[in-house]
Amino acid sequence: MEHQKEDAMENQNNTLEINVKVYPMKEDKGNLLAFASATIGGCFAVNGIRIMDSEKGKFVAMPSSKGGDGKYHDICCPTTAEMRKAINTAVLGEYEKAVEKPSLRGALQNAAKEVAARPAPEGQRVADKGAR
């Protein structure tokens, strides 16, 4: 048993890589912003992570199931504050990147429409499909 404690303490000092995929909600679902999945250390996958919004801001909710008592209980959860912080940081960071992409794409599309709608400067010919 003492050997297990030493291994656990050693592992806490090692940094595990956390890879996250985020799936933002396409429609308004109340305070649910997105689902996410995370692979920890390349060997443990956690699916069903939820990114939620509250009055205090965004937070990560681990997968849970409803128990016989009618309350929701986490299916899996980090056992240390450091790991919880690492998962939260990774998941929320990927969420911000995911929601930033569509807005950037929209801005580029709007800029292209504005350029296309501008009249050609005086003295320049605008070629149409039939002109050669």
From TrEMBL:
The protein's name: Uncharacterized protein
Organism: Hominisplanchenecus murintestinalis
Lineage, broadest ranks: Bacteria, Bacillati, Bacillota, Clostridia, Lachnospirales
